[in-house]
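Reopening: Methyltransferase type 11 domain-containing protein still failing for me.
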Amino acid sequence: MLSLSTSPFSLLPPSTLSSPSPALTLHRPLPLIRLKNPKTPSLLAFCSPPSQAGISPISTSSSPLGDPFSDFVEKDWSFLEFDHVNTNEEIEEKSKRIIEAAAIRDDSKVLVCLGTEDFVDRVRASSQCQLLVVHYSLYVLAGVKEKYDTVRCWQGDIVDVPAKWAPFDAIFLCFFPALPCSLDRLFGALVERCSPGACVVISYAQGREIVERQRQRYPEMVTSDLPDKDTLEKLAAANSFQITDFIDEPNFYLATLKFV
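Support: Ran it again with your exact input. Result attached.
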């Protein structure tokens, strides 16, 4: 059983909570959900277990939004966890290449967007960086928080991640085709959240061919393709990025951009 605290707006870190009270208990498996209304505020960092944090429960009667879960609709993102192309050895090798592309240090601030639990594990094992995980699935985020209490989690779109957590030294966009915002808006948000010299790594270890299949099978979630080099070059030039590496193979995609 997993105990989490939530509110219509945020899951607050322990330092912001004043008096202990019982927590809302959610039983695994948790629903895989996404906000129906994209303007509804996203969820902030999951907090520590209730015995340590003093967590306030939801009061649906007093909430200005009424039932805080009424706008949620279940989305199943579990297909991202399955690799239909690579062996275990290939997964390890490709994940290593992707992580090394960002040149993470122990003092780096790192954002992982739509990464699998396995990828988050590998990033965490590679350094003691300050890590923020962004995903649409509360189930994935709960699993991350259950493993790593110091990792911050954000449920929603990357363009809505609070600027107060920036700047980031490395940003991993692990499943670009599921990002619903336009490329111009995405890169505008990245510019505001990158430190000088930061690396943005767009990757998919299974490559373009699998994305095309996923787009046919999950059209509501997979809404675009992986960007080609010409598109990235134009966006990079317009937003103070430099492409330092680009690989676009049938079974592996990796684009590394440096903020200058």
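DSSP finds seven helices and eleven strands in the chain. If you still see a failure, please send the error message rather than a screenshot.
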